[in-house]
Amino acid sequence: MDGWQVIEEAAALAARGETVALATVVWKQGPTSGQLGSRAIITESGHVHGWIGGACAEPSVIRQAREVIAEGAPRLLLLGGTDKFGDAVPEGMRVVPIACQSEGALEVYIEPVLPAPHLVVVGSSPMANTLAEMGRALGWRAELVDWTRFSADDASERSMVVIATQGHGDEEAIEEAVAARPAYLGLVGSRKRGAAVLGYLAERGVPADQLDRVRVPAGLDLGRTLHTEIAVAILAELVQLRTAGHFRPGQPAGPAEPAAEAVDPVCGMTVTVGPQVRPLDHEGITYYFCSAGCRAQFESTPASYMRKETRC
Q: CB neighbours (10 Å) of residue 251?
């Protein structure tokens, strides 16, 4: 993919509900394989689509990108030693030393590409329709589902689910919704009605920790309101919670397996463990290297390096 294709793919992934980071080379000092404007998408699991640089830069960019995804905030990196820059490193730039035989350097801007919020409104009332329409007006992925067709598969841990069935299938809809463990789950109804629904489900054996997450009534308390205003109150609460980071879309939907890493005992560079980083077994320990040169140097005088810490 070229640079523009990378941007289009990042937008497409976000539209499908996936969170990625977009990395762009904004400055370089050769020799380096990274070029000005080179771009790459990094997924939550650490896969790279596009091109950001060679074996020296890529592992560091992947680690930083996954942190950007988790935090939901961009960052500017200087990849390389700071000795040649003196006091010229801008405030706020994160310096990531890398040991590279080419002695090149890169500045890389990494920004999170967050998916559109996913709103699932369960019900068919005028208020439910209004809420779904308002969600779409904000650019959210808003779905309107009748309770008879709603299941846990319609939501995920990133979804915001509003049960607006108005007494028609409240219990069934809540039971399906809690199984999905959505980021937000609200029931439109009075506190008295909510207590009855949740009490019934507790008697059916639905775990208390799941039921405790149900907000009743859903939405900000605006007093006596019309159905359109109830939709406004619910949407306002969702925006408020989302802005406060209570269910930030940038958070992984499930625990991602961290990639195993090791430190090259020769140059000190951190590499992602795998056959591509030239593993070498020596006296019962597996060492990994950023380049064939580092491996050859280790093999020539292993005693100089084998006592160094190799895992990070």
A: 18
